[in-house]
Specification:
The structure is a homodimer of 886-residue chains. With 886 residues, chain A is α/β, with parallel strands linked by helices. Chain A contains 36 helices and 31 strands.
């Protein structure tokens, strides 16, 4: 038996008791303490709900006893009597969990009515129609929530009677009609659940409590919690409150209002109101609610009171509120207040405005915005108010939305692109051969591949929308169409893709451009004052670098050189280099790549003048630059089958042989990263030379360059020791040749568990560590991201085997623990060691908080996430500060 | 300038100064202290050699000074004068490193001779022929070692003069001939290196020292060190010793002897001897040495002295010795002694015999055998005395040797096998379809794949010899032949493969059966008394289990269930299960697999009665049980090209679709291990049921079964928590159905870095941890073993980027550190946690020592390595003890 207090009168509760009283209850208690007009009531705690489940879904005698005691207190407070025939006390019984789960759980109003008390209410109020309305509402809700009788039974009765009496709405029925409604409702209950409706108000109350407890586990609530990652064991509180009646005539009513516009953030009351109605009418849609401004016209006095209350509540909670209220014969009651949900744009405007109005501090403003929400504002996006139904859904591989005509190959994309047409490249998957098509397209849609597939990586790099793994698509490139179910989309048809959600739409869907309001800039400015983490961007191209600076990146944390290798004009040179059979042939190809790479670096360095640029030397396995093996295999088989044994077959067979010798069972764990640099040092030498020559060339323009040269995939200190030697040697040669002086640093990506475990040794040869948490997550978990995300990972997350997708939210216990170990060991060997993160987690707010905590110097993320990271870094700094203060 | 002592007189050195004095020097010093007949001398330390390299390959004045001082002492001791014309002191100058590097570095004898001292020597000895012989030997060796003049110059002169004088050997030349030899030798030196030969003995000595220091880095020595993993920075000592002359006539001579037979271990002097000769004659091959027994006949007195010395040295060093000696006019001198190299068989016999003779303790015997060497004795092997040249070399994938007729497909192998023929299955690579062929074959040879390829894994499982990745093979299965270079081997031709070395031989090569001598058994018996680590075997079949018991395994540490799935008659059922489109279809296939699995387990449990059997539930990705995708792709392409669009195409396309949906970018990191058990719990349930029913069935025969159920690839405690629940549930069902009672444990393989890092949480749900160090090494390093071993890993080891192949020798700093972390965390959560290792490292002696050190309870290895592991475990226990004693 639980010994803790199971019931709190509103006057006993406090705002910080949300866990115990639920959000609604805690705020009702808080407002009661403030002296605001809240109908009196009490709260049954969430712990009682847990007890209920622990005790085999039984309401204990003990609980009943304290509820009845609280009820007696209510009777005293209100002067009404529960079940009394003269002044009957009516109650609302509502759920209220720690996390708001709007509409997910059940509510019963007007509880306490029966065949006798309804007449008492009629007498007391002198309004029999009102009393009957209350009774039929109660019957209807009780039947729904407690007895589980389908609503349509009752709705049909109401519809029929409205027709019979020619009434536009239920409220327009004559008293005689109400009598009939009630009689027929009772008939329904008698038929569907014989003896189910108790005349005894106490039994009504117990059954209603039981129903609210049970609603914690109704299907809707369970699904909602799963979707929103809310723990299943919290339970719901039950709020039992004296009714305020909005349905006592035209001087009464009920409404819901936001203190500011939740879409735009504009400081103007925003809400809906119904005269002569109870709460559920506003939501139910049977009557169309009026804008709140109508109340201003009809009852300026009450409206005035309401706006004052809104202001008080905003000031008190320091944030925009979402308020339910009722007016009973001209008297205003607040039934609920909570922080209102809002769009990202509104969130920012409100936060900044509140600071201006003195209702909140800058720190509060910074802490109030959910950084993840900002992603909406940083890409073109679907106009949610006008969205048609999605045709298919794939993996959200690169955020943002785009419309265009469907094309099925890269050449067509390029042709149409040059004609100025907007196209979406649709393929089963993309290869390096498709780069020019991706460049020309507005976005990419593939039926296969995960969020690290070629298409995804390239599109993200270019900041283009991309959806991958959309397996509902059946693409027939020869027929130049694709199908989704029975629907056929031909080449040239327009589709819209939303890479933020993964939705594919037929036709053109209106898009909203990215919003960078002055308030947004203001907020980021405040964030920059507070944060201690540096924020950099991952950028491989001039365009990315420019976008990064525009969004406030303080340098580049990861410049991948492989994308430079993949661009159309270079790919043949790269392939030549790979297929070279002698060192001389390879040297020749590399010599031709050198000036191209140098030019790439010059562009990026110029854009990032004065800021550090971290360049990762070539990382992917070489076979990624060659054509697809399966296709080639089929081509060779076909040529042989046709007995065409000419030169084409020979050259394809040669290529196939090379591909076979390069191809790997597990390329993720294969010959890549510094393993390439060690076996083919000439490739890395060329890249180092290109970097150094670019530095020298920009020095002549008096542009300051701060290059950081990063060796990928180091697992053993010897790898870095040797590579560092090679880098220093090549740089010295350039210095000698040019008689220039320049500084740079050499470090490594920490992306293997072994690198973390032996970080002390590695630090001896590193000026910096950059955590590559994508690969580190793959190797720590033993997950191939490409495979896992298409296969078992969704199952894992859905079935709560893992709390989150660890590729999105950093796994602190595993990967994070290794990172922490590495930072400690690295710094203890070399206190000046710079440490950052350049995996995708560098743009995830929760992960940024962790990076701050373990003492990283910077995070680096996609340019589009830089503002998110700036805010998250500020929040991390504030969180830390407040932790220290506590 | 180095302050430490650079020179040790023999009487100053000690046996434990090998690092400083080299092996040869330390033993010479030691023997001198013992009072044995060693010609006096001194040692220049290995540190001086390092100094020499540090100082730019210069012999410092300081070093010269101390050498000359030591020389003065020698003069006093011997009463001879270096460079003296009356009693000239002659020296041998020999290298001597810490690790014995026989024949790799240089030696100069008779140093100190010049045109004047040679006459003094002649006078002093009254033997001018002898003096001239010494001088020509010195000229020849000095020219070779210091002046680098090709030996053939000198050999030609000797040959010509032998012809002229009709002399059978150089020793038979008349004095006049010797004069000519000397003159012509001087002419050669004058021509090839004018002024190169110094008459000054002091200069001779300095140049000889320089040459010995330099010989540390000659090509032979560098290659030898690389092959034997000897560090490059140790340097060599220089031994400068008074000459003992074996070339003073028939009462003189020189020889090399082992105190026991190094091939068989027999306790009988074994060696070679030459009368009237110096050391190099025995090695050079210009004269054929005589067996040492000849000495017994010719000079029984000296022979008697020598056997006594041998006995003293054996007793002193507690081991069989390899001794160089010289007899100068009937007086015996020992020039060198060292522990003699021997075969594995001899090693065991000698060790055990020495204990019997009271020359060594059991502990010393155990510590003396290199466990790795035992592998020779545990498989059939090539008779090294008769080995022809290998035709090709691949990866040594499964040890042992076998001969048989070449067949190119599994069906042919099975057919011929049933006819009683011995066959070797030769394929580019094998798939599960080939299992019946592997079963029927004596061994497997593939041109592709690494040492964890299908062929390798299966062959090792079956204990059959296998060579993989033998890329010199060009196989034409249609033509029924393969080529190596120009050589063609047709189907039916006999070849021999040696899976221990990777060598492929044409024809049948004599093989030696495994040797399990009584001494071997005795040694293992002693090992068992000492060791604290339990030794188990990895065994999937009855045959393996039987072999495991035979070799003394105390249970099974890893019984993989996938090989049971792959056997010919089951594979179709397994495929049916995988291709099932409904749960019912899958259930039906599983129901038919159940009795088969149960029977498998019964066989193994019966064999292992009373011992624990650790069964790993299904681990590999499901696509491993389906046909090869590439082949299917080509087949489909060909059918389409031929426009054969019938049923065959349809069914193949269906299969291809399934394969595509199952195929993965990185199967090693894909949907396997418990990820299969979580998504398809019915598969694991069937396996658990099969285990439990087998236990119940054997209980009826009163056989004790100790099953351990192992969940593979756990990375997050939730995975184990859920799987454990399923296992317990299924076991309870069997208990209920059968009313039987039985115990079992549930644990997990620790094979992911995350499992190590979060081992504390995981231990809550585990009765045991079994380290799967193969996969743990792959994920910790980010190495795909299949890819790495064929590509960059050999490069890494050769270039000393990694000290060893971490798949063979456990990487203590990385993988080992994670294991240690896991054991600590696991035991601190659950002190009773049992911990073992079942990766291939479980059979590697060095790794076993590490396992002992971090407190594992057992190691598990292939049945054939069980004796090795027993010995290694004993050594680990002894090592620990002696560490504690120190």
């Amino acid at each position: 038996m639980s010994k803790s207090k199971q019931i709190y009168m509103f006057a006993e509760g406090k705002a910080d008791m949300k866990k115990l009283l639920g959000g609604k209850g805690a705020n009702l208690a808080d407002m009661t303490r403030l002296g605001l007009p809240v109908p009196p009531g009490f709260i049954i705690t969430t712990e009682s709900c847990s007890d209920y489940y622990r005790h085999g879904e039984v309401i204990t005698g003990e609980l009943k006893q304290v509820v009845f005691q609280a009820l007696a207190q209510l009777e005293q407070q209100t002067g009404k009597v529960f079940g009394g025939e003269e002044t009957p006390l009516l109650l609302s019984v509502r759920s209220g969990a720690y996390y708001s789960m709007p509409g997910m759980m059940d509510t019963i109003l007007n509880l306490g009515l029966n065949d006798r008390t309804v007449e008492g209410l009629a007498r007391q109020t002198g309004n029999r129609r009102f009393a009957l309305d209350c009774y039929r509402r109660f019957l209807q809700m009780y039947s729904d929530v407690v007895l589980k009788i389908g609503r349509y039974h009752f709705e049909r009765v109401l519809d029929n009677l409205k027709k019979t009496y020619g009434a536009a709405s239920t409220q327009d029925l004559p008293e005689e009609g109400w009598e009939k409604v009630l009689q027929r409702f009772k008939d329904i209950v008698e038929k569907e659940a014989p003896g189910g409706f108790p005349q005894d108000p106490y039994r009504q109350l117990i059954e209603a409590m039981r129903a609210v407890f049970a609603s914690w586990n109704n299907d809707r609530a369970v699904v909602y919690r799963k979707l929103n990652r809310i723990p299943d064991d919290l339970g719901t509180a039950v709020n039992i409150q004296t009714m305020g009646f909005g349905n006592m005539g035209e001087d009464s009513g009920t409404g819901v209002a936001f203190t500011r516009n939740p879409s735009t953030g504009e400081k103007k009351l925003y809400g809906e109101f119904l005269f002569d109605a109870q709460g559920e009418d506003v939501v139910a849609g049977s009557r169309t609610p009026l804008p709140i401004s109508v109340l201003q016209d009809k009852n300026p006095q009450v409206y005035g009171q309401f706006t004052l209350l809104c202001d008080i509540l905003e000031k008190h909670y320091g944030d925009m509120q979402d308020i339910e209220f009722t007016i009973e014969k001209g008297v205003l009651y607040i039934l609920q207040t909570r922080t209102g949900k809002r769009t990202a744009g509104a969130a920012i405007k409100i936060a900044v405005d509140l600071v201006g109005e003195g209702k909140s501090s800058k720190e509060e403003a910074l802490l109030r915005i959910d950084p993840a929400q900002l992603v909406q504002l940083l890409h073109r996006r679907i106009d949610l108010s006008q969205t048609p139904e999605a045709m298919a859904k794939g993996l959200p591989a690169s955020p943002g939305a785009a419309s265009g005509k469907v094309v099925f190959d890269a050449d067509a994309a390029e042709d149409k692109g040059q004609e100025g047409q907007k196209v979406i490249l649709v393929r089963s998957e993309t290869t390096p051969d498709d780069i020019h098509g991706i460049v020309a397209a507005q976005g990419v849609l593939t039926s296969r591949g995960g969020v690290t597939s070629h298409a995804a990586v390239v599109a993200r790099g270019m900041g283009k929308p991309c959806i991958t793994g959309c397996d509902a698509l059946r693409i027939d490139p020869r027929g130049a169409f694709f199908q989704v179910g029975d629907r056929v989309i031909n080449e040239g048809d327009v589709i819209t893709i939303d890479g933020t959600s993964g939705n594919v739409y037929a036709g053109e869907v209106p898009l909203i451009p990215p919003l960078l309001s002055s308030e947004f800039k203001q907020l980021l400015c405040w964030a920059d004052e507070v944060r201690t983490l540096q924020v950099r961007a991952n950028a491989d191209t001039l365009k990315d670098a420019r976008k990064a600076r525009e969004f406030g990146a303080e340098g580049i944390g990861l410049c991948r050189t492989e994308h430079m290798f993949m661009e159309t004009e270079r790919l043949p040179l790269v392939q030549e280099m790979i297929l070279a059979e002698t060192v001389e042939e390879r040297a020749a190809a590399l010599n031709r790549l050198l000036p191209i790479q140098q030019a790439d670096f010059e562009l990026i360095f110029r854009e990032m003048a004065g800021f550090p640029v971290n360049i990762r030397l070539l990382d992917p396995p070489l076979h990624e630059f060659l054509p697809d093996k399966e296709e080639l295999l089929v081509q060779v088989a076909c040529l042989k089958e046709r007995d065409e044994r000419g030169e084409e077959l020979q050259s394809k067979e040669r290529l196939l042989t090379k591909l076979r010798s390069l191809s790997e069972q597990n390329p993720m764990l294969g010959h890549r990263g510094c393993r390439i640099g060690l076996v083919y040092p000439e490739i890395y030498r060329m890249q180092v030379r290109a970097i150094c020559q670019a530095v020298v060339s920009l020095q002549q323009e008096t542009i300051t360059v701060k290059p950081e040269i990063m060796i990928p995939l180091v697992g053993h200190f010897r790898e870095l020791e040797i590579m560092r030697e090679i880098v220093l040697e090549e740089a010295s040669r350039v210095k000698e040749e040019t008689a220039a002086r320049f500084d740079f640093t050499v470090g490594t990506m920490i992306e293997l568990p072994r690198a973390c475990v032996t970080a002390g040794e590695i630090a001896r040869y590193a000026d910096f560590f950059s955590f590559g948490t994508n690969d580190l997550t793959q190797t720590t978990f033993g997950f191939s991201r490409d495979d896992a995300e298409g296969k078992f990972l969704p199952f894992y997350v859905q079935n709560k085997i893992l709390p989150e997708n660890p590729f999105i939210v950093l796994d602190r216990e595993g990967v994070g623990s290794l990172m922490n170990q590495a930072v400690r060991a690295g710094r203890s060997e070399k206190p000046t060691l710079k440490a950052g993160i350049c995996g995708e987690h560098g743009g995830d707010p929760g992960s940024i908080e962790f990076c701050h905590r373990i003492g990283l110097d910077y995070v680096s993320c996609s340019p589009f996430r830089v503002p998110i990271a700036r805010l998250a870094a500020a929040q991390a700094a504030l969180g830390k500060r407040s932790e220290q203060e506590l």
